[in-house]
Amino acid sequence: MEQRITIKIAGKEYTLKAATPEQEELIRKAADSVNKKISAYANKFASRPLSDLVAFVALNESINSFAIQKKLDSVSAEAASLKEATESYLKNIM
Fold it and tell me: For residue 68, how far is the Cα from the chain centroid?
């Protein structure tokens, strides 16, 4: 059942829809993570405007996402290679 939830990011409230309790939990954790990162950047770069801090967080999260995707692609390729080697081995012993 879809539920409307309110989260706060950088002091501003946003109302979103969560399709499941699990999705609600993910949204709340993500908002908390973003707020913590904004706070960390605010401590590091106190003179920067909030828009810069949000941009830093967005860039950092995007970099992390690309790095994870690259690693996932590598692991998937390795898994495919291992599967092929295993199937070849099994074919040769039968």
Answer: 9
